[in-house]
Amino acid sequence: MSEETTAPKKEKIPRQKMPEQDPKVRSRNFQEVPHGYTPELAQKEAERCIQCKDPRCKQGCPVEIDIPGFIKLIKEGDFEGAIRKLWEKNSLPAVCGRVCPQEVQCEGLCIVGKKDEPVAIGNLERFAADYQRMHGRDVLPPKADPTGKKVAVVGSGPAGLTVAGDLILKGHDVTIFEALHAPGGVLVYGIPEFRLPKEIVFSECNFLERLGVKVELSQVVGRSETVDELLETYDAVFLGVGAGLPVFLKVPGEHFIGVYSANEYLTRANLMKAYDFPNYDTPLVRGKNVATFGGGNVAMDSARTALRLGADHSYIIYRRSHAELPARAAEVHHAEEEGVEFLLLSNPLRFLGNDDGFLTAVECLRMELGEPDASGRRRPVPVPGSEFIVDIDTAVISIGSGANPLLTQSTPGLSLNKWGYIVADPKTGKTMKPRVWAGGDIVTGSATVILAMGAGRLASNSIHDFLTYGW
Fold first, then answer.
1. How far is CA 43 from CA 35, 48, 202, in A?
2. Are residues 385 and 264 in the same domain?
3. Minimum mean pLDDT among 370-374, 408-412, 440-444: which range?
4. N or C: which end of the chain has fewer CB within 10 A?
5. Whole-number Å distance between alpha carbons of 37 and 124
6. What's the pLDDT score for residue 136?
């Protein structure tokens, strides 16, 4: 009788954790939290991808990256091939690998994740981009022959950069007009250095300039020149100006010194480098007791920034519970690790200040959860007589942002909705004004980087069709 033999069972590979700074150390510096994968870790994680014939992960990506394709190339050690595969659909892979909500998009649909942790698609995308930047050859994707057509892109945030990157590769002449003194839009003024280093954003912008995109800085379209004036020179205009108008709580005391919108607080700290004092002498209250109001990613960025600026206590004050926090789970986790204190089921009633006009405290009311509202989250209901005081010297309001009317008020022919956002076809980005497209937060309101990029992709396809075929 022959001895029975069995094939050895293949050992299951766990999801590879990305090395990162110790929470106690990183909470006091602005260096990036995760260190990124080594080539060995990246290849090991890439082995976990089962190369589905019908990849659902790709369906979850707003810009339709060939995810199994670039992961397979990483597994094989062809890192240059991996970045080229990413560039086919995404001009900003180093950014997306860091800030996209992969857990609810590509990774959320990963088949491996049905029985195990999903493949770390975002970490692998970041690895491919970082490896190319640090070790790769000076390679660029191929460009089509020049068409002679000119496109103006207003705003250099994720939507505008995507449009510029797509259209320059298709042979069109592209110029970006940016209101600030550095390109990147919300990527540089809104997202802190420890989550998205500015050198990464500038490297991605430089990549587009190497492709031939021209960038005009400190150009406030709507003031320096109008959209109609751009249309005299350009064949098409894309509006990707974001939604940068601050929204406040509308409670008494918001006039006290030390109350900021998250937009201003993060712009001063990030783009204007208030964190790097005295090299940059940007005015910013460096509070010892800082409260951030809101529960999204921007709120987490603000609260974590406050710690790095020297706060003894950095609070998140949010009117719902932990389960309803809209921020990415990873951002909440990092905030908790670093020592951010969460005052949940708490709603601000008024700010208190001293005779000199400085903020000293906030009065809040405790809440409890009732029935779900239109968003599907349980509605917060006040608990009568539960008022309490929190001593603070700085407040950051992070409850969203609105449409800045600077451009829209100077552009006749645009159709706006009741919130002041531009009305555009969701499938093409076309506005009611001929030869003008729009996308990103100025159309949808505040959303994610990758959704803005997805809108840019749809608009760039439509602009290309118009420039090529006249429709």
1. 16, 9, 27
2. yes
3. 370-374
4. N
5. 8
6. 82
